[in-house]
Specification:
Distance between the termini: 40 Å
Strand content: over 45%
Shape: globular
Structural class: mainly beta
Order of helices and strands: EEEEEEEEEEE
Oligomer: single chain
């Protein structure tokens, strides 16, 4: 059973930064995808960034390119999302999600098999 635990959310002002962490445990695959997916109140889930563990591929939504960076610490089984220059429209609950395999899909949150509990991000103007 794969488990994901997020942390690092909080409340910040426009232009500030946050780093989210997702600790992954229980994966039996050497290649898998960890994605950060957010959901704002009354909106659909929105894929933000993803990282293929094993292949090292990264994926970003257009709305966050140049501001967000996804990375991995192999030794800690942790995937990070560094979020810079935050905007009010980034306000949402941020979830990390897992699927086995070499490819990630930001436009289809339904392909992910395991999800964390979420960490909230609030950006005020």
């Amino acid at each position: 059973q794969v488990q994901l635990v997020e942390s690092g959310g909080g409340s910040v002002q426009t232009g500030e930064s946050l780093r989210l962490s997702c600790v992954v445990s229980g994966s039996t695959y050497s290649n898998y995808c960890v994605a950060w997916i957010r959901q704002a109140p009354e909106k659909e889930r929105d894929g933000v960034a993803a990282f293929t563990v094993g292949a090292g591929r990264t994926y970003y939504a257009d709305s966050v390119k140049g501001r967000f960076t996804i990375s991995q610490d192999n030794t800690k089984n942790t995937v990070y999302l560094q979020m810079n220059n935050l905007k009010p429209e980034d306000t949402a609950m941020y979830y990390c999600a897992y699927r086995s395999g070499r490819y990630c899909y930001l436009d289809n949150p339904g392909v992910y098999d395991y999800w964390g509990q979420g960490t909230p991000v609030t950006v005020s103007s």
